[in-house]
Design goal:
Elements: E1 2-6, H1 7-21, E2 25-29, H2 45-49, E3 54-56, H3 61-73, E4 77-81, H4 92-99, H5 102-105, E5 115-120, H6 135-139, E6 145-147, H7 152-164, E7 169-174, E8 181-185, E9 197-200, E10 205-209, H8 213-225, E11 231-235, E12 238-240, H9 245-254, E13 257-264, H10 269-281, E14 290-294, H11 305-308, H12 312-323
Parallel strand pairs: 2-3, 2-4, 4-5, 5-7, 6-7, 10-11, 10-13, 13-14
Antiparallel strand pairs: 1-8, 6-12, 9-11
Helix pairs in contact: 1-7, 3-4, 8-12
């Protein structure tokens, strides 16, 4: 059955489906109960499943994640909500030292079926600590997997697939896109969780992106068409592990690659993608891989946020730079 819903509602529906199908699934976080979270992603779930399965927690991210680690030892599958991206750092030690390592530390005897949901990125006019893109910090942490849906259909299915996995998964949700609606087929066969997907076919250059920037790249591709260019847009979906097969195939055809994300440029996902594309597609590239990113600084005040976030003009400028060689 196909239904149109915003990304936030799609995640809610996916969480509901997981709670219904597996009694071991628990949801924990600040204000996830009666309030339904600050973005209302968990709206109605405590009412329908009770306080023992959808639990409000103290304002203590380290305690939330640490408690979830203990729950996995007892056979539960906790879904932890970090209220805002900038609030995850108090839990960083737990995530890096415990969540990411316990499976390996126990020689595989302990599983860590935990999902850590993090609304990330800018575009909502928020104050400090409420708009950040920390995904690269988790991608570079061995033992974690990191995914980010860009549309409602993927959000619905990917949250369920993440919960069903025995691996710890950091689930990055593009908060600026929460209320963008799309078609969700609740009876479809979902794509594998670890696969990237071509969102728009093209022949002149390849845009590689994920999360909130997928919409921006699609808009840039539409604008480029007016100039006679057909840009291919690839949604990575999974940041760890990276699935670059479709990217390599595309770049071998187009000869040009532009990687787009709003996180800082230095050591961002774009650097890794650029390195791997260069390694695999060197003789197909007609120009160096370009990157369009946020700047190497904290997210600025909301009044100048538009100057910080990659936009259509910056993306098209990078395409022009790539094609100028």
């Amino acid at each position: 059955m196909t239904t149109k819903m915003p990304i936030a509602k799609a995640i809610n529906a996916g969480l509901r489906a997981s709670l219904e199908s597996d009694e071991r699934v628990l949801i924990m976080g600040e204000d996830v109960g009666p309030l339904g979270g600050v973005f209302r992603v968990t709206d109605g779930l405590q009412k329908d499943f009770g306080e023992s399965r959808v639990m409000d927690t103290p304002l203590a991210e380290s305690g939330i994640v640490g408690t979830a680690v203990g729950l996995t030892f007892r056979g539960y599958r906790p879904v932890v909500e970090i209220q805002f991206d900038g609030f995850v750092y108090p839990a960083y030690d737990q995530i890096v030292s415990q969540v990411a390592k316990l499976h390996f530390r126990s020689a595989g005897r302990l599983k860590m079926p935990m999902v850590i949901r993090i609304p990330f990125g800018g575009g909502i006019g928020a104050v400090e600590h409420h708009s950040e893109s920390p995904e690269a910090q988790f991608v570079m942490t061995a033992g974690l997997k990191v995914v980010s849906p860009s549309n409602a259909h993927d959000a619905y299915w990917m949250i369920q697939q993440a919960i069903a996995s025995d691996d710890p998964i950091v689930f990055m949700e593009p908060k600026r896109r929460y209320w963008e609606a799309g078609e969700v087929d609740t009876e479809a066969e979902p794509a594998p969780l670890w696969e990237s997907q071509v969102r728009r076919a093209g022949t002149d250059a390849t845009l590689v992106t994920y999360g909130p920037m997928v919409t921006t790249c699609l808009q840039a591709a539409e604008a480029a068409r007016e100039d006679g260019l057909e840009l291919e847009v690839i949604d990575l979906r999974t940041l760890s592990p990276l699935d670059l097969g479709p990217v390599h195939e595309s770049v071998r055809r187009t000869g040009h690659a532009v990687v787009v994300h709003e996180a800082a440029r230095t050591l961002g996902i774009g650097a890794e993608v650029a390195a791997r594309v260069t390694e695999e597609c060197f003789y197909s590239l007609e120009s160096p891989v370009q990157r369009v990113t946020g700047y190497d600084m904290p997210y600025p005040p909301s009044r100048v946020e538009d100057e910080f976030l990659p936009g259509i003009d910056r993306i098209l400028d990078a395409v022009d730079a790539a094609r100028a060689f």
